[in-house]
Design a protein that fits this description.
Region (Disordered): 266-291
Shape: extended
Structural class: alpha+beta
Largest sheet: 4 strands, antiparallel
Keywords: Membrane, Transmembrane, Transmembrane helix
Helix content: 25-40%
Biased composition (Basic and acidic residues): 275-291
Distance between the termini: 70 Å
Transmembrane segments: 168-190, 240-258
Oligomer: single chain
């Protein structure tokens, strides 16, 4: 089980637990999950093929959010979404949708990998953004360490994650000429078949004759404006918007992630400066001897 924690100066300890039903049953006797088998946790440096195979074979992972020791939410599936921090504390498992989350109120922004691995959690309340520290040995810790190694990686990793959404479109654009030649080659090997003509029966249905009403229409004349021809690069952008738009979005995601990290570090430093200093009690002076 993975446990993500953030000590908030007002709300207390915020905990997010991710695990399988068998692991949660060790904590709660009345856990509502319906699976009994335990899943496999891979090391953070596991190759992508092993992560994909384990994700397919593993039972579903669950998520629980608690604040100051009180359960707030339990989710039956893991998705990248914004979820409210405080809830009704119902014991049943619900679907994580993130719809209708008020961004002005305390909530969590959860980032998952395609293999349902918890990568990042951010506490948010209006303009406040604070990142959780990932647990040791988790996939989130590996991602965090890579992003902390340099400013370039902190921007490039979220940017690459955003670009992955348009990866299939870029791949299709690059491989389209190859596919076209393969299909043309296969079509040349097939015999020239002629399909028989099919003549469906024609049925004439009676159509009622409706009265025609001619309304007076204004006779507007617009000036003939000779507009310049659209540049070729504008035509390309209009034709391949589904390809370049994810690229632009990926770049924006990287820039926003870098800005949010700086805001998180500033907020943590502010919380730390507001903590009361622990002063050692002053030692009493020994009593004077009367002369």
């Amino acid at each position: 089980m993975e446990v993500w924690q953030l000590d908030h100066p007002t709300y207390g300890l915020i905990e997010v637990r991710q695990g399988f039903d068998a692991e949660f049953r060790e904590l709660y006797d009345d856990w509502p999950g319906d699976t009994t088998e335990n899943g496999v946790w891979l090391p953070a440096d596991a190759p992508i093929w092993a992560r994909a195979r384990t994700w397919i074979k593993n039972p579903p992972r669950r998520l629980e959010i608690s604040v100051d020791g009180e359960m707030q939410h339990r989710y039956e599936s893991l998705e990248s979404a914004r979820v409210p921090l405080f809830g009704q504390g119902k014991p049943e498992l619900t679907v994580m949708t993130g719809l209708g989350t008020d961004r002005a109120k305390p909530h969590l922004k959860i980032t998952m990998s395609p293999f349902k691995e918890l990568l990042q959690i951010e506490f948010r309340e209006g303009p406040t953004i604070v990142e959780f520290e990932p647990p040791a040995g988790s996939r989130g810790e590996r991602r965090h360490e890579m992003m902390q190694s340099s400013t370039f990686r902190r921007t490039a990793i979220p940017m690459a994650e955003g670009l992955s959404k348009g990866g299939f479109a870029l791949l299709a654009l690059l491989l389209a000429p190859v596919f076209a030649r393969v299909i043309a080659w296969i079509a040349g090997l097939l015999p020239d078949w002629e399909l028989p003509e099919i003549h469906p029966p024609q049925v004439e249905l009676p159509v009622p004759e409706l009265p025609q009403v001619e309304l007076p229409l204004p006779n507007w004349s617009f000036p003939d404006i000779d507009l310049p021809e659209m540049p070729a690069w504008v035509q390309w952008l209009a034709e391949y918007a589904e390809i370049w738009l994810p690229v632009v979005m990926g770049i924006a995601v990287g820039i926003i992630a870098l800005r949010n990290h700086r805001k998180s570090e500033q907020q943590k430093a502010q919380w730390k400066s507001q903590e009361p200093a622990h002063e050692e009690p002053a030692q009493e002076a020994p009593p004077r001897e009367e002369t």
